[in-house]
Write a structure and sequence with these properties.
This protein is α+β, with helices and mostly antiparallel strands and 225 residues long. It has a single domain (3-199), classed as Pnp Oxidase, Chain A, CATH 2.30.110. Helices cover 21% and strands 33% of the residues. The radius of gyration is 21 Å and the shape is globular.
Amino acid sequence: MSTADSLSQTSPSLLSSTPRTTLRRHKERARTDRADLYAVLDAGLICHLGVVADGAPLVLPTAYGRDDDTLYLHGSSANGAFCSANGQQVCVTVTHMDGIVCARSVFNHSVNYRSAVVFGPATLAHDEDERWQALRIITDHLVPGRWAAARQPSRKEMAATSVLSLSLAEASVKIRTGMPADEPEDLDENVWAGVLPLSLVFGTPQTDPAVRPEIPVPAHIRDRH
């Protein structure tokens, strides 16, 4: 069965099952519900775009945002590598590291994580309405409410910005949770084992000294903290 045929037969609520999205190690960590994909993407701030530029692989960290089943990525129009993704197969990943798993043996150390991998052809957006909408989605993904609060992009700024779109039709999600999986014979070792949790925390907003004193920290920034 071709990838296209496989995707066409996938339930809208389920993730696609293709050779590229099928897990070969730790299959029990796979998630098949599309809601799990949305949750991983919506909780992230930066994705990594894997693309072949000038014959060599390149991975670019970039801001992104999701609109239903479309992922939008933001980059400079002067970035040749970013723009070279147009029309070619790319890979986009988002990963959250939730904890370091300390086992009794070095071999069984691990990490708790949530990760999403998206495959497919990227498309450089040219329609101005789509580009405007995509930049709003990306901005509000980073800081909800920021688009409406800040000055809108000028024509010159829009010309300096590129937007890639990528369908979420072909994607996989892998999640690990819980304690270490030690061997039974290691359970009596005189070694501490457990999880060292990790989390992303926003700090206290730092106001630009050039902001006029009468301008308060807005709710969409204060609440983000």
